[in-house]
Specification:
Blueprint lengths: L1 H14 L9 E5 L4 H17 L2 E9 L11 H19 L5 E8 L2 H11 L4 E6 L12 H9 L3 E6 L15
Parallel strand pairs: 1-2, 1-4, 2-3, 4-5
Helix pairs in contact: 4-5
């Protein structure tokens, strides 16, 4: 037992990186509404603590029966508005946000592709409690991102009954 303690103590510094500067680039898939704001607030707090940059991603989900470049004016306006709100919230805390909007058929694929393209160190997203009542713990989108992300993923969950009628990320 003493030998194991010595090994653990000696390896401890190698296994747990110093938290300062651990995350430099945080990606947040944006969702309109109160839960989306909670996720963004979590990311802003992390960015403050780690002097990180945040990139918010608003995915416009394009139905299969429409071309990817279809006229989705209302969705584009909502995306611009949500990014502007995110920038205001972050500015109050001294954090700069870069916003990006993409069109995609699958949300998870868009999030993973953006994480790779922006060289994100961390993706912060949420999972609605309703998924825990079903056969899976996370939504298909969160599950996809967890399995394929090129970086760490932080999934914020809420207890049953808290913000239950809202979805944290755009769920597939």
């Amino acid at each position: 037992m003493r030998r194991l303690r010595r090994l653990f103590h000696r390896r401890r510094g190698d296994l747990v990186p110093h938290p300062e500067g651990l995350y430099e680039r945080i990606l947040v898939p944006l969702k309109l509404g109160p839960i989306g704001e909670e996720i963004l607030a979590t990311a802003v707090k992390l960015a403050e603590e780690h002097a990180a940059r945040i990139r918010v991603l608003h995915v416009i989900r394009v139905p299969l029966d429409l071309p990817l470049d279809a006229d989705l004016h209302d969705e584009e306006e909502a995306a611009e508005s949500s990014i502007a709100e995110a920038k205001l919230l972050a500015a109050e805390h001294g954090v700069v946000i870069e916003g990006h909007t993409v069109r995609a058929r699958a949300l998870g694929e868009a999030i993973v592709a953006e994480a790779a393209a922006s060289e994100a160190d961390l993706i912060v997203m949420g999972s609605a409690p309703r998924w825990r009542r079903q056969s899976r713990f996370f939504s298909p989108t969160v599950d996809y991102v967890l399995r394929r992300a090129p970086c760490e993923v932080m999934v914020v969950t809420y207890p049953q009954g808290v913000l239950e009628d809202e979805e944290i990320t755009v769920e597939a």
